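Obj: model holo form, ligand = zinc ion.
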Amino acid sequence: MLLHWLVNLPIFIGFLLNLTENIFWQIFLSQWTSIFSVIMIAITTIILYGKLKLGYFLAGQAKCPECAKIYDRPFLGVSLINKKYEKCPHCKKWHWIRKSVKEEGR
Ligand SMILES: [Zn+2]
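Output (holo structure tokens):
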């Protein structure tokens, strides 16, 4: 309830200050919502796993095609439709990874 109120607070403030049609206020609102969402996902991963694991929470794990070790996929990366260019934390080499380990049926 408190978090719902907190995410909607700028809408209420914009309404009170008559900023609802101001383009800069609308840009701020969209950025506020995006940043708030990422922070809430981060807090959720900390609650679930005990530490910040955004990549694992959103993308799962992947198996490196070079060293065959499994690692948590990074949160940020270069995506190309169904592939993601990411660095293996074990062998430090970059690869195009197609699926997470869960999607391969492991
Ligand atoms: Zn590797």
